[in-house]
């Protein structure tokens, strides 16, 4: 292919690092979303939705100039129509805080918020690392005590439990307060300067701008140096230590195991006191499925009245991948009823009957084909079987003339022969189908009881 043709063909494909969620994956995503919503309700968190685009300056201010995100990962552009500098959101906290300040949400007290949606970071795409990915996040705004740090950690544990995920481990650290970090930073820079000859480019760049991040290095050659570096925790004062101990006490009382990782610093600048990550060994290098902590300075830094805050964000793609890895696939949700029909008059009756069944809360799929003709009875029944429906409702010419419908049970004990088929007056169809569904569920439960 010529270069132009290759380019043209590429332009009609998805953007690199940005994925489609295909129908086959929908049950997994929906299982995650359902579990997340019910967990968030259980803790009294309310949803907030903010635009996908914000002023670039919001993220520069909110995330920090010397972070990976702001330095090299943002999708920023100039609005061609009015010259505004805009950015596709790389994370959710800055916008949630922006909105909270803008709409004065804390006027009547602290707020527990959650959000979900796509985030954008220009990174090298690989397993678990994409350019458009999705996060679920929670932010507890206006609470200062260690009880809320512990609460947001318990929330994550509850979600893993609800999803059936095991072996996700919790790492915990405290970043103390700014003055404590400053004292540590001085010592740390002195220490790191002694390793100039082995530091990689990234680390050299961060040595004076963000030395804590040097300890976050994934470079194997630097691990020993990082392990022996002065530990921030040794620089914490009484108050910071008491807060950290408070969090740990609640976690222990709730039987949440954790490991203190003195090198855990998190990628974003705005954290203080508690920071944590949830990590799995089953996803290779991209094993962090959630991270969070306290960010008390942020609200004031962004122009709000000073208010403490903490929160977390989880990477949904990584969690979906882990669910897949652990074979925690839910069954694809089939429909309840598949409508089989033959002839124009029957198609119309079928359409009416389907609406009545849906009125009663059932999920109903109408048989339809690419050529607009309904096809043979046999081919329709094949579709009905493939749909996963519990029942087929069959309306042909005879049924239309008699004002009836045939109800056939699918997925019955003897699949080859199919289940019983009953002729039902059209006016009693809804009642009959619901009754038959209840019977089928009860029969299934009895079978399960017998097996136990
Ligand atoms: P990492 O160290 O893996 O780059 P991070 O510190 O940049 O992560 P956060 O900003 O804390 O990540 O985002 C919270 C979560 O969002 C991460 O723990 C991860 O699960 C997920 N995440 C972050 N970046 C990506 C990405 N590019 N693709 C998919 N998921 C991501
Ligand atoms: Mg990152």
TrEMBL record:
Enzyme class: ligase
GO biological process, one term: histidyl-tRNA aminoacylation
Keywords (A to Z) from UniProt: Aminoacyl-tRNA synthetase, ATP-binding, Cytoplasm, Ligase, Nucleotide-binding, Protein biosynthesis
Reaction catalysis annotation: tRNA(His) + L-histidine + ATP = L-histidyl-tRNA(His) + AMP + diphosphate + H(+)
One example GO MF annotation: ATP binding
Superkingdom field: Bacteria
Cellular location(s): Cytoplasm
Gene3D superfamilies: Anticodon-binding domain (3.40.50.800), Bira Bifunctional Protein, Domain 2 (3.30.930.10)
EC number: 6.1.1.21
InterPro entries: aa-tRNA-synth_II, aa-tRNA-synth_II/BPL/LPL, Anticodon-bd, Anticodon-bd_dom_sf, His-tRNA-ligase, HisRS-like_core, HisRS/HisZ, HisRS_anticodon
CDD domains reported for this sequence: HisRS-like_core (cd00773), HisRS_anticodon (cd00859)
Residues given in the record as L-histidine binding sites: 91-93, 121, 135, 139, 266, 270-271
GO cellular component: cytoplasm
One Pfam family recorded for the sequence: HGTP_anticodon
Protein transport as UniProt keyword: no
Ranges for domain Aminoacyl-transfer RNA synthetases class-II family profile: 1-326
Membrane-crossing residue ranges in chain numbering: none
Keyword rRNA-binding: no
Homology family: Belongs to the class-II aminoacyl-tRNA synthetase family.
Quaternary organization: Homodimer.
Name under which the protein is recorded: Histidine--tRNA ligase
């Amino acid at each position: 292919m010529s270069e132009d043709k290759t380019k043209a063909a590429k332009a009609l494909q998805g953007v690199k690092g940005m994925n489609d969620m295909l129908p086959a994956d929908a049950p997994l995503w929906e299982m995650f979303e359902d579990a997340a919503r019910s967990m968030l309700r259980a803790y009294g968190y309310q949803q907030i939705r903010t635009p996908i685009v914000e002023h670039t300056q919001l993220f520069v201010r909110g995330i920090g100039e010397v972070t990976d995100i702001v330095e090299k990962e943002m999708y920023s552009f100039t609005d061609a129509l009015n010259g505004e500098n805009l950015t596709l959101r790389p994370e959710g906290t800055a916008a949630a805080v922006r909105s909270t300040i803008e709409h004065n949400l804390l006027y009547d007290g602290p707020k527990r918020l959650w959000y979900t949606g796509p985030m954008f970071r220009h990174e090298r795409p690989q397993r678990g690392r994409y350019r458009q990915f999705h996060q679920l996040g929670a932010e507890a705004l206006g609470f200062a005590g260690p009880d809320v740090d512990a609460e947001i950690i318990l929330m994550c544990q509850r979600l893993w439990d609800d999803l059936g995920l095991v072996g996700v481990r919790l790492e915990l650290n405290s970043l103390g307060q700014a003055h404590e970090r400053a004292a540590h930073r001085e010592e740390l820079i002195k220490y790191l300067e002694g390793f100039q000859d082995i530091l990689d480019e990234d680390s050299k760049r961060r040595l004076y701008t963000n030395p804590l991040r040097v300890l976050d290095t994934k470079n194997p050659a630097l691990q020993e140096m990082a392990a022996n570096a002065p530990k921030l925790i040794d620089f914490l004062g009484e108050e910071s230590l008491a807060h950290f101990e408070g969090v740990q006490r609640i976690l222990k009382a709730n039987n949440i195991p954790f490991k203190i990782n003195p090198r855990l610093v998190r990628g974003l600048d705005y954290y203080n006191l508690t920071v944590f990550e949830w990590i799995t060994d089953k996803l290779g290098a991209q094993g962090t499925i959630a991270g969070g902590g306290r960010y008390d300075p942020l609200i004031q830094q962004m122009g709000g009245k000073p208010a403490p805050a903490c929160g977390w964000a989880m990477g949904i793609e990584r969690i979906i991948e882990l669910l897949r890895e652990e074979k925690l696939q839910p069954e694809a949700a089939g429909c309840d009823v598949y409508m089989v029909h033959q002839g124009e008059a029957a198609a119309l009756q079928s359409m009416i009957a389907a609406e009545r069944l849906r009125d009663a809360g059932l999920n109903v799929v109408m048989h339809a084909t690419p050529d607009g003709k309904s096809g043979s009875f046999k081919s329709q029944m094949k579709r009905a079987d493939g749909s996963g429906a519990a029942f087929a409702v069959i309306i042909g010419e005879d049924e239309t003339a008699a004002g009836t419908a045939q109800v056939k049970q699918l997925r019955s004990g003897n699949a080859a022969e199919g289940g019983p088929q009953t002729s039902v007056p059209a006016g009693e169809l809804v009642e009959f189908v619901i009754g038959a569904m209840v019977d089928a569920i009860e029969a299934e439960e009895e079978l399960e009881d017998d097996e136990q």
